[in-house]
Amino acid sequence: MRTTTLAAVASGALRWLAGPADALERPSPAEPRAQDLALLREVRARADRVLVSNVPGPVVNDELVLVGLSGSGSPERVLIEQRLSLTGTGDYNVRERGPARASEALGDEPPPVTKFGAVVWQGFSPGARELAARLTLDPAIEAARLPLEVTVSGTPLSPGGLVPAAGQVVLRLTNRTAQPTTLPTAADADATAVAQALDVARAAAQAPAGPRLPAAGSGLPTDVPTTGDGQVAAQSSVPLRVTGTVRLVDGATGTVGGPATTAVPGGAEVAGTLAPGTTAEFVVDVTTAGRLDLDLTVIPALDPRSLVPPEGAATWAAWAAAGPDQAARRAALDLLVATAAIGARATSSSPYLGADLPGTGTTRFLYSFAALERAPAVAAALEPRPLPIALAGMALLALGGGAVRLWQRS
Fold first, then answer.
1. Which alpha helices (H) appear in 27-82, and where do they start and end?
2. Is the Cβ–Cβ distance between 47 and 347 less than 8 Å?
3. How far apart are the C-alpha atoms of 31 and 92, rounded to whole Å?
4. pLDDT tens track for 86-130
5. 92, 170, 390, 392: most buried, per Cβ within 10 A?
6. 397 — phi, psi (to 5°)?
């Protein structure tokens, strides 16, 4: 048994608040031999498209992606509030994937440059530096990149989520992270090495608001000892943890129903994990007009239930110490490959701007209906008043004469 490299692939579809990944058909391995499979093809290909950044030390990169929806659910505004905590002394040059239309500083430091759509932070860190900005993105471009799609049907909503009359509104949330890929498999694997990685992944899955998902080379190992090789076509995808509320406000009354919901005054709280390629549907029965308020936070996630050790073991390390047979070791390896694949696929949207920075951070997506633009105040109509107008005219004539005299003297 020799050290071999894992490949970045994805798990099968997980059901909305349901069970483990689907079984994958694997070819029978040929003569046992060491695998040599490319790890994280997706991440490496993506890294080639991102300009290199230079920073003096690790960076904490926290992003809040604000998605403002139209009445039909399509992205109407996409903003990012980004906060970078730099450490180390020296020059920094952070290059991120755009395009961004504009930037606005959120702190004392200047915002990044967005010329030609690129997002570039430049400057000097005296040992630590806090950078923060709000970036305006193009909603038409981001519509194809956002991990969650929202559609609204039934009673048409006006801008801002306004409900013009009684009726039924149907909200559909779809996980759009799935894409074709290739899964590797092996005849056998070292139980201890696999268990160590799975315990790391399980700890990350149990931290719902924690840092970005672990991936090979970033929390998970880049290789484990295995024998035998094989591949199978599959889907690369990321579960999405969805939390928040769907409520009727501003005079609207009615009920909200759907999966993973808890009734609250005026609507429902949502807390569930949306599987790749699946849709969760929420039905809003409106009895009086008003406004539908959508406040959903979406985070790429691992499902902790899929990472529970078998046979009642408290940890994967304890499972490995019990001496599992070859079939169990192979199943654990398949789970590790699937977990590494989720982390690899998650990097396409977390970090959202795509900087190749050392360190960690978080990415949260906040979905809501775009706020209505306030109409400019209309000035009161002016009525002509003869006497003031006459006096003003005489003053202008006097001023004009003085101006001529000054011009002549010069």
1. 41-48
2. no
3. 51
4. 999 999 999 998 789 999 999 899 999 998 888 999 999 999 999
5. 92
6. -65, -45
What is the pLDDT averaged over residues 132-137?
96
DSSP string, 6-28: -----PPPPPTT---PPP---PP
The span from the CA of 72 to the CA of 76, in Å, is: 10
∠ CA 194-197-201, nearest 5°, is: 130
d(CA 210, CA 195): 21
Measure the CA–CA gap between 360 and 61, rounded to whole angstroms: 6
How sure is the predictor about 2, in pLDDT bands with cuts at 50, 70 and 90? low
18: exposed, middle or buried (Cβ count in 10 Å: 0-12, 13-18, 19+): middle
Question: Are the beta carbons of 175 and 236 closer than 8 angstroms?
Answer: no
DSSP class of 251: T
pLDDT of residue 246: 98
**Which residues have CB under 8 Å from 233's CB, separation 6+?**
180, 181, 182, 183
pLDDT band for position 31 (50/70/90)?
A: very low
Query: Which residues, other chains included, contact 405 with Cβ-Cβ below 8 Å and sequence gap of 6+?
Result: none
Cα–Cα distances in angstroms (integers) from residue 132 to residues 88, 129, 135, 223, 397, in the given order: 18, 10, 10, 36, 54
Per-residue pLDDT band at 235 (split at 50, 70, 90): confident
Token pair belonging to 207: 């931290």
Structure confidence at residue 44 (pLDDT): 33
Residues 190, 191, 192, 198: is their CA dihedral positive or negative? positive
For the entire predicted model, the pTM comes to 0.78
Q: What values do phi and psi take at 373, rounded to 5?
A: -75, 135
**Mean pLDDT within 276-302:** 96
Q: 127-154 as b/e, with b when 16 or more CB fall inside 10 Å? A: eebebbbbbebebeebeeebbbbbebee
